[in-house]
């Protein structure tokens, strides 16, 4: 059985302009056996070069190994997705895999979903889904459906093919805090709001008018008279 191949982008060297200098082999189909490529296989993560960690998207049951490469071999291999950073000041990254492999459910992800990237040392980064749409793989870049480039519009881009290698689902992600960090920020915000209320109350107390000098003299006379009558 034939299946359509996902053709990964070539990584940037210095800037987004370098994409125009790279061209990809436009492999349309393959005779690779249709084995189960969707299940994770943790045992061989480090058997291949350039292993960098794993990607988890719990909401859609994605769990796949990441390899710092944009080669066709990486995306063809089971439990293996291509991961390559765009060597620019923005630090953009791309992850690509077949829709018959780990990214079969990628098009169903919803805005607000959380993706976790866990590197080989166990350090975890969190990303929040910002957009999901159909686009194109031009062989030199990723565009939206109208042909406008979307490279560099997010901290992380994921894509997988549908209806041929040139048509792709694109998902954009923005870096976010971990749930623990978000809870800490929320507590600090609530604590800060409470402190602001206390400080405001104290400031209002200091602004309350004191008694006038005439009222003070009258009070002193009243106290003096009260003492003399005893």
SSE layout:
Blueprint: E1 3-4, E2 29-30, E3 51-57, E4 62-68, H1 72-76, E5 81-85, E6 93-96, E7 114-119, E8 124-137, E9 142-144, E10 156-161, E11 167-176, H2 179-206, H3 213-228
Parallel strand pairs: 4-5, 6-10
Antiparallel strand pairs: 1-2, 3-4, 3-7, 5-6, 7-8, 8-9, 8-11, 10-11
| Residue runs with pLDDT of under 50 for 5 or more positions | 1-5, 9-35
Strand order of the largest sheet: 3-4-5-6-10-11-8-7
CATH architecture annotation name of the largest domain: Beta Barrel
Radius of gyration: 30 Å
Shape: elongated
Instruction: Specify the CATH class of the largest domain.
Output: Mainly Beta
Q: Look up the CATH topology of the largest domain.
A: Sortase, Chain: A
Helix amount = 10-25%
Cα-to-Cα separation, first versus last residue:
114 Å
> How many domain regions?
2
Strand content: 25-35%
3D structure, described in words:
This protein is 21% helix and 29% strand. It is α+β, with helices and mostly antiparallel strands. It folds into two domains: 3-176, Beta Barrel (Sortase, Chain: A); 180-228. It has an eight-stranded mixed barrel. Strands 1-2 form a two-stranded antiparallel sheet. The longest helix is centred in the last third of the chain and has 28 residues, at 179-206.
Highlighted features:
elongated, Sortase, Chain: A, 3 helices, 230 residues, alpha+beta, 21% helix, 2 domains
Short description:
Helices cover 21% and strands 29% of the residues. With 230 residues, the chain is α+β, with helices and mostly antiparallel strands.
């Amino acid at each position: 059985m034939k299946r359509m191949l996902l053709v990964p982008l070539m990584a940037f060297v210095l800037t987004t302009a370098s994409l125009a200098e790279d061209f990809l082999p436009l492999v349309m189909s393959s005779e690779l056996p249709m084995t189960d490529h969707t299940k994770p296989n943790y045992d061989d993560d480090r058997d291949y070069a350039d292993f960098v960690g794993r990607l988890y998207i719990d909401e859609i049951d994605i769990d796949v190994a990441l390899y710092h490469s944009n080669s066709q071999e990486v995306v063809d291999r089971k439990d293996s997705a291509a991961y390559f950073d765009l060597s620019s000041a923005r630090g953009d990254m791309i992850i690509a895999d077949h829709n018959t492999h780990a990214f079969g459910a990628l098009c169903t992800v919803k805005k607000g979903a959380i993706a976790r990237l866990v590197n080989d040392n166990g350090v975890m980064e969190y990303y929040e889904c910002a957009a999901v749409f159909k686009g194109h793989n031009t062989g030199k870049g990723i565009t939206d459906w109208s042909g406008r480039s979307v490279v560099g519009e997010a901290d992380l881009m994921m894509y997988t093919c549908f209806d041929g290698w040139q048509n792709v689902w694109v998902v954009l992600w923005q870096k976010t805090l971990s749930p623990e960090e978000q809870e800490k920020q929320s507590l600090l915000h609530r604590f800060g709001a409470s402190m602001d209320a206390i400080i405001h109350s104290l400031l209002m107390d200091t602004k309350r008018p004191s008694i006038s000098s005439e009222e003070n003299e009258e009070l002193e006379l009243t106290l003096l008279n009260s003492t003399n009558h005893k």
